[in-house]
Amino acid sequence: MKTPVHDFEPGHLPFCQVCNSKQLELVLDLGHQAPCDSLLTAAQLNEPEETYPLRMVRCRDCGLVQIDYVVDGSKVYHREYPYRSGITKELADHHHRLSIDLVKRCNIPLDSLVIDIGSNDGTLLKGFKRQGMRVLGIEPTNVAKFAVEDGIDTIQSFFTDKLADEILRQHGKAKLITATNMFAHMASLGSVIRGVERLLDDDGVFVIENHYLLNIIEQLQYDSIYHEHLRSYAMKPLLQLFSYYDLSVVDAYRVASYGGSIRVFVAKGRNRPASAGLSNLIAEEHQAGLYDSAIYDQFRAKVLQTKRSLYNLAVEAEAKQQRFVGNSCPGRCATLLNYVGIDRELMPYIAEQPTSLKLGLHLPGKHIPVVENSILFKEQPDYTVLLAWHYWQPISADLRKRGLKSKFVLPLPELRILSE
Ligand SMILES: [Zn+2]
User: Fold this and answer.
1) How far is ligand 1, taken at its centre, from the CA of residue 33, in Å?
2) Residue 137 bridge partners (DSSP)
3) Is 305 inside a domain boundary?
4) 215 C-alpha vs ligand 1 centroid, how far in Å?
5) CA distance 209 to 280
6) Which of 91, 103, 116, 388 is most buried per CB count within 10 Å?
């Protein structure tokens, strides 16, 4: 079987990233946008800003949902990438539980080599190290230095098949390779899979965790479509992807992280049998209509409806001279605010926790400044939009406890205003 192209050059991508079919249909056009984590300094506001097409398309042949433009990796994952998993408590807790679950579920013996691709600040690997594993992180951005400071062995680089050969020589084969929330990201997908294929021990497991297409569609999470997320996975296209290599998806189930993800287990060898859980998940996808056009037409109509209601609320608040501000600045809020058309006239600032690396910078596109969240309690704005709406419960409870009286606005999956 001839393997399709899985390593993509920057630029327009007129074919499917899994099966290479050209039968792509448009799901949603989010306009031209700047990479969502390229926040700007005050000085950069005097310079032009590069934007790229952001379109969500679907392959009619294998069902993959993807974007059809690849931004050069060095522009998306610039070295100052302002994101650390360890600073969000929910995420740190999630990673900790994940490390314990995986060691148990995959029967990983003590002192095995565990590799995390896209290891960020080493939060996940710390959990494996505590359980007596040898750990190695691969992280291209400067966030790697936080991991190294904390004693987590980390190579600051992109993971490629070439790097995998080098690791193999120095450390041997890995019993467990993890790729959480990054497997949908890289343009060099083929190189990563070939690297995993070589580095994984015969009885080893490759675990992927990624945002799940069914959650994106059902909960209208179109704000998770941005240039870093080249692909939005469902199980059928993932099975097809690994079938081109000496690897098989053997198990998968849904987990709650990032507003709904799938945890996928991949083992060595072709055509390995699927678990009952995996078969059920695929049946659920078919039942939901994930492989038919109709569900995507409904999705687009609902997105337009929520766009109108959020924009109208912002404009009405401005007309009444009410303060309408944002809280938390996850990458996805750039997609949301740029697409809906909310600028700094309508939303004067976005408040972030004091440890955030985004403070003092400006949102790409609409240039809304990111400021420390103590301002909320002093200013008591009329409306606070919870931009990390997929975590709205703990966030709103915390802000209330600290004395914020604003009405909370949840922008999605439908506009909700909470005054309690
Ligand atoms: Zn396809």
Assistant:
1) 25
2) 116, 154
3) no
4) 20
5) 18
6) 116
**Cα(21) to centroid of ligand 1, in Å?**
5
Q: Do both 371 and 400 map to the same domain?
A: yes
Residues 333 and 235 in one domain: no
Ligand 1 geometric centre to CA of 306 (Å): 29
Region label for 369, one of left (φ > 0), alpha (ψ between -120 and 50) or beta (otherwise): beta
For 234, phi and psi rounded to 5 degrees?
-125, 170
Write down the residue that tokens 């994952």 correspond to: 77
- Total domains in the chain come to 2
For ligand 1, the distance from its centroid to the CA atom of residue 1, given in whole angstroms, is: 16
- Does 300 reside within a domain? no
For 258-294, how does the pLDDT look when each residue is reduced to its tens digit (9 = 90+)?
789 999 999 999 999 999 999 999 999 999 999 999 9
| CA of 241 relative to ligand 1 center, distance in Å | 9
Instruction: Please give the torsion angle defined by the CA atoms of residues 360, 95, 265 and 23, in that order, rounded to the nearest 10 degrees.
Output: -20
Q: How far is the CA of 72 from the centre of ligand 1 (A)?
A: 22
CA 2 to ligand 1 center in whole angstroms: 15
Domain membership flag for residue 270 = yes
Domain of 357, in residue numbers: 311-418
Rounded percentage of the chain residues whose pLDDT exceeds 90 = 87
| Mean pLDDT taken over the chain | 94
In a domain, 51, yes or no: yes
Q: What is the CATH number of the domain that holds 113?
A: 3.40.50.150
Q: Using a cut of 0.85, tell me whether the model's pTM lies above it.
A: yes
CA of 22 to the centre of ligand 1 (A): 8
One domain for residues 259 and 320: no
